[in-house]
Amino acid sequence: MSYVDLKDTLADWPFEPEKISVRKILGTDGVVRIQMRVELGLIQMETVGRPDGQRPGGRESLLNRHKKELQRYESCNGTTLGFSLSPEESNELRNEASLFYRRYVALFVLEEYADVARDTSHNLEVFDLCRDHALEREDQLALEEFRPYVLMMDARARAYAAMQQGEASSALAHVNRGTMAVNDHFARYGQDEAAQSSEELKILRAMAQELGRRVPQDSLIVTRKALREAIENERFEEAAQLRDALKRRDQKTRPT
Fold first, then answer.
1. What's the predicted TM-score (pTM) here?
2. Rounded (5°) CA angle 163-168-173
3. Residues 6+ positions from 150 with CB-CB distance below 8 Å
4. Among 19, 55, 64, 235, which has the minimal tally of Cβ within 10 Å of its Cβ?
5. 11 belongs to a structural domain
6. How open is the CA angle 15-18-20, to the nearest 5 degrees?
7. Contact criterion met (CB below 8 Å) for 159 and 171
8. Domain that holds residue 231
9. Domain count, the chain
10. Which band of pLDDT confidence, cut at 50, 70 and 90, is reported for residue 254?
11. What is the structure's pLDDT at 224?
């Protein structure tokens, strides 16, 4: 077995503490991979599947494996009640989410927003699975503190992807939906003070204001469309917030 000294490689790509340094490389097998420079070297990740290239149980990811198990359980029992994740399984899922987090941060720097959304969606599904089915209470809550951040990154990624397609109205809708999701999270746990000081909400609101200036002519259409979707999908709290937004808009435009 031979080993490669990375000294020259690292010297050509110095670590910058204040910067997330990321690049794509073409592997010797012809496969494109992502590299991230870190203080003590570099991290290399696959662009699809698990970032570490592993296939647990022959599946694309642990999440995929447990979702299949959940589907089989529900098919056999007619309900998901009783399905549970052991502490070990919950920990393994958290570790997998950490791998996907590293990759979606790298992808965000590379401005590959559709792939960021793919990975943030993966992690949000992990969060849901652990919250709803972990056997131990601490495992149910372990990832919840990170949910606002992932929701924010998911909304930003989808918005930027829409902007790349010239769809500013869709971008605004994604940001508004993300803002509501973060608010719903804080409301779920009675964290009103956290909501008021949330950096995630500040970022999304600032982004919404910027996008709103780009699409003033059809923002009303966007809000009405979002309201219809919220009602159709029985997201009644979101629908109430959208109705309030429409009422405020109507009051501003009504002649005095």
1. 0.83
2. 105
3. 101, 120, 123, 124, 127
4. 19
5. no
6. 65
7. yes
8. 65-253
9. 1
10. low
11. 77
